[in-house]
Amino acid sequence: MKRELWALTLLVLLCAGAALNVCTADRLIGTVEQSLDRAEHAAARSDFDTALLALNTARDLWDGYRCYTHIFLRHPDLDAIGDAFYQAEAVLRQHDREAFPALLAQLRFHLDAIDRMEHPEPGSIF
Length: 126
Hints:
Blueprint: H1 2-44, H2 48-64, H3 66-72, H4 75-93, H5 100-118, H6 122-125
Helix pairs in contact: 1-2, 1-5, 2-4, 4-5
């Protein structure tokens, strides 16, 4: 009987940890995307200083979760997001309004891919 209780306790802890992981990923990606939205709108108005500030805020938010992301997320995905942040910053510093949306779309694609991977689906469980 003790084994079954330990197994049940472990199962509950694993499920709670998985739910916490999904909530953390959702919250992180949601706040980063809000800053990216602000950067996109500012760049569309040719307000590159505000766009750069919003992009740096998004990167700071992302970097603030470095301990979490480097444990729970795939490193190639982290590298792709880091590269996309730095490419977008370089384009903003050059005041290139035409190239910024494409780089922002690439960054959002990587963030959305992580968000999709973190959500459990029947195909990933069975």
